[in-house]
């Protein structure tokens, strides 16, 4: 009897495909010349994606005031002690300085204090978990346990977060009296309380969206992710050890699908957004990369361009690419940085080539149907249950079409209006001191009539004065 060779393990298969993706994109980069008009478009668009300073300052003032006052409210609130010790962590693209177009989306992770020792039970490849206390407790977390007095309920935490935010907004006033905060309806499978900053006029046009996400801080990483991300060649072993020494966070998000188990209905998803921020902020192979006196690189502009292209693709093909999101692009970006780690490969003058290389990498991930989560490698973000094969093929073809036609979806769109409200009615409303109250009857037409009336009175006064 002849022994058959053993088939490679799933991990080895994934590693082989990852090498193929890296090698094929490198060959594509070296073999395809870049037309001058495409190179010019990429460089121009990278400059245009930067946020206007005026918009950044106004958004920061409004969002920081909201965050600081919400935290004061939670710390002084006596009806829910668990939230009294909460602290905010700033995460997401704005704080990573890769936000594009406008500062209109913010993510805030609200860190909640929990007992030091917890048991985490993996429910899938390593993204979703059931979280249990080691033993029953009398601490404030007891109000958010299931009937067994050990399992932490994600739904109870999120429901309480909604209640507290709504209570806070009853007395809170936005620094800009022309705007107000509104709590959005809860989205299925979302771990966040989403709020919209809206104008008091113009039918409540949304200016800024904020996600407040409650999160449990856990010091010990689960076994599935304990090795940490593969950044040794890119960022160094020292930074990898530093990353592994940081806590991880769990947010109240349940798994997708029907007929979920009881554990899945109360599941928590592991989050590494704070570490993603750290990695992107210290992104160079050399520590001085992009510092004031150090050499610059084009890594962040490449990510911003990819986010812009993904956004445009989703707007152009909303049904075919409904499963595509910016996190797929960010994950492909992190894998590319880990494989193509030398700073000289990302010199600013190489921006067009680097961006096309990044598109090719995302295209290859979609072609092979393999995009491992950067921190949970056993979790494939392009697995069929998460991203249908038909949609992956559509994405491959859409990216190929963009490359052949000179990136038409990247071309300059209509200029965005200023984020800060500047309408005449709003300015007058602010001047007359409405203190946050709305006057729908005070419109621009009414102002014109008032000015015409005042002019008529003035002319009549002059006329009768001269007659006298």
Describe this structure in words.
- By secondary structure, the chain is α+β, with helices and mostly antiparallel strands.
- The protein is built from 14 helices and 9 strands.
- Strands 1, 2, 3, 4, 5, 6, 7, 8 and 9 form a 9-stranded mixed β-sheet that branches.
- A hairpin with a 6-residue loop joins strand 6 and strand 7 (206-218).
- Helix 2 (36-48) crosses helix 11, helix 9 (299-316) runs antiparallel to helix 10 (326-339) and helix 11 (351-368) runs antiparallel to helix 12.
- The termini are far apart.
Helix/sheet category: alpha+beta
The string of secondary-structure elements, in order, is HHHEEEEHEEEHHEHEHHHHHHH
Measured as a percent range, the helix fraction is 40-55%
Q: Tell me the β content.
A: 5-15%
Radius of gyration, in Å, reads: 27 Å
Largest sheet: 9 strands, mixed
Number of helices: 14
Compute the number of strand runs.
Answer: 9
Mean pLDDT comes to 84
Cα separation of the termini: 128 Å
pLDDT below 50 for ≥5 consecutive residues: which ranges?
1-10, 424-444
Instruction: Assign an overall shape.
Output: globular
């Amino acid at each position: 009897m002849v022994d058959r060779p053993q088939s490679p393990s799933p991990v080895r298969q994934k590693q082989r495909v990852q090498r193929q993706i890296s090698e094929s994109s490198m060959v594509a980069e070296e073999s395809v010349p870049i037309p001058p008009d495409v190179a010019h478009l990429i460089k121009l668009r990278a400059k245009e994606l930067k946020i206007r300073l005026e918009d950044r300052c106004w958004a920061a003032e409004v969002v920081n005031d909201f965050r600081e006052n919400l935290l004061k409210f939670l710390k002084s609130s006596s009806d829910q002690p668990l939230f009294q010790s909460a602290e905010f962590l700033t995460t997401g693209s704005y704080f990573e300085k890769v936000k594009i177009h406008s500062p209109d989306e913010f993510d805030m992770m609200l860190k909640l204090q929990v007992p030091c020792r917890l048991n985490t039970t993996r429910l899938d490849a390593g993204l979703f978990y059931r979280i249990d206390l080691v033993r029953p407790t009398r601490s404030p977390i007891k109000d958010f346990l299931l009937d067994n007095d050990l399992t932490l309920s994600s739904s109870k935490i999120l429901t309480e977060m909604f209640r507290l935010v709504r209570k806070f907004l009853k007395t809170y006033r936005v620094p800009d009296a022309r705007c107000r905060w509104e709590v959005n309806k809860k989205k299925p499978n979302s771990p966040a309380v989403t709020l919209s900053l809206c104008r008091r006029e113009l039918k409540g046009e949304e200016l800024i969206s904020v996600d407040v996400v409650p999160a449990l801080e856990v010091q010990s990483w689960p076994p599935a992710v304990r090795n940490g991300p593969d950044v040794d060649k890119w960022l160094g072993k020292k930074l990898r050890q530093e990353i592994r020494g940081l806590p991880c966070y769990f947010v109240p998000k349940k798994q997708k699908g029907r007929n979920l188990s009881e554990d899945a209905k109360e599941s928590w998803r592991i989050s590494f957004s704070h570490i993603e921020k750290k990695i992107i902020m210290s992104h160079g192979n050399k520590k001085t990369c992009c510092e004031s006196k150090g050499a610059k690189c084009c890594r962040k502009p490449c990510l911003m361009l990819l986010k812009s292209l993904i956004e445009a693709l989703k707007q152009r093909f909303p049904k075919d690419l409904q499963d595509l999101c910016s996190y797929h692009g960010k994950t492909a970006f992190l894998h590319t940085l880990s494989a193509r780690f030398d700073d000289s490969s990302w010199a600013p003058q190489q921006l067009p080539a680097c961006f096309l290389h990044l598109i090719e990498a995302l295209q290859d991930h979609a072609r092979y149907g393999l995009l491992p989560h950067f921190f949970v490698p056993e979790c494939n973000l392009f697995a069929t249950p998460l991203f249908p094969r038909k949609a992956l093929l559509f994405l491959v073809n859409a990216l190929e079409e963009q490359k052949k036609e000179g990136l038409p979806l990247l071309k300059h769109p209509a200029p965005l209006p200023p984020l800060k409200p500047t309408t005449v009615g709003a300015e007058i409303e602010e001047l007359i001191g409405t203190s946050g109250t709305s006057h729908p009857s005070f419109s621009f037409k009414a102002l014109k009539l008032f000015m015409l009336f005042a002019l008529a009175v003035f002319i009549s006064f002059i006329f009768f004065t001269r007659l006298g």
